[in-house]
Amino acid sequence: MVLAARGEIDFNTFLFANVGDRSEYPPTLRYFDEHATPYAAAHGLELVMLRRVMVRTGETRDLYDEITRPGSKAQKIPIKLSNGNPGSRSCTVDYKVRVIGQELKRRGATAENPATIAIGISLDEIHRANRKAQPYEVITYPLLELGLRRTDCVRIIQDAGLPVPPPSACWYCPNHSIEEWHRLRRSEPALFEKACQLEELMSKRETDQGKGAIHFTNYRRPLRDLIRPGVDLLPLADDDQSDGACDSGYCMT
Q1: Taking a C-beta distance cutoff of 8 angstroms, is the pair 63, 24 a contact?
Q2: Which stretch of DSSP H or E encloses residue 52?
Q3: According to DSSP H, which parts of 150-237 are helical?
Q4: pLDDT tens for residues 123-169?
Q5: What is the mean pLDDT of residues 6-35?
Q6: Is the pTM here over 0.90, yes or no?
Q7: For residue 12, how many C-alpha atoms fall within 13 Å in the half-sphere facing its CB?
Q8: What are phi and psi for residue 13, nearest 5 degrees?
Q9: What's the alpha-carbon Rg for the chain, to the nearest Å?
Q10: Cβ of 66: how many Cβ atoms within 10 Å?
Q11: Cβ(160)–Cβ(1) under 8 Å?
Q12: pLDDT tens digits for 28-41?
């Protein structure tokens, strides 16, 4: 948005697919309301928060509610199975890609007249960039085209008088790094406890079906045991949580 406000990229509509107020990291939602929305309005930019709405019923879905409702067997999120393999996942597709796609088509995007989509992947994560697009869209990466790294983005945001936004992610996402789990425990202890409870709920569901326990990290240990006070920096060189990690860019608002 800052680059658009400065006239350095030619975009005036910005979409944020909110996976649900009970799922999205609370500081991200506060940033959207307190900083991003006023900034967009002040610079004549359109900033839109989207939610997953069921076409048949008009019901607004929250990812957390879907995976915790009684009787649900949905995995949805990238859990780690007892055999070490990643579980099936559809959270990004269902709550990000399709939601944004519906909005694009609502605004008139078609295969004959596709929408131009800008995804904010910087040079630090160039490996995540790809040209996989739906028929109604053309994907571009303006940060790559401008040669910007994450540190450059921080400087640009701060130069605009804005605080640097927190990451956009579900607070219980199993793709969190160990460092991120420790940060959540320190800064949002109530949410960390809920994440522990969610892991336990989903693990019990899997074991009741005879499939074995699941975990939210690659270390096959419960969060409650792994992420403890006084053990903020684990002596583990390999903190790779990338199994099945999101490479669409749609979680990078």
Answers
A1: no
A2: strand 46-53
A3: 150-159, 178-187, 189-208, 223-226
A4: 999 998 887 888 999 999 999 999 999 999 999 999 999 999 988 89
A5: 96
A6: no
A7: 6
A8: -120, 130
A9: 19
A10: 19
A11: no
A12: 999 999 999 999 99
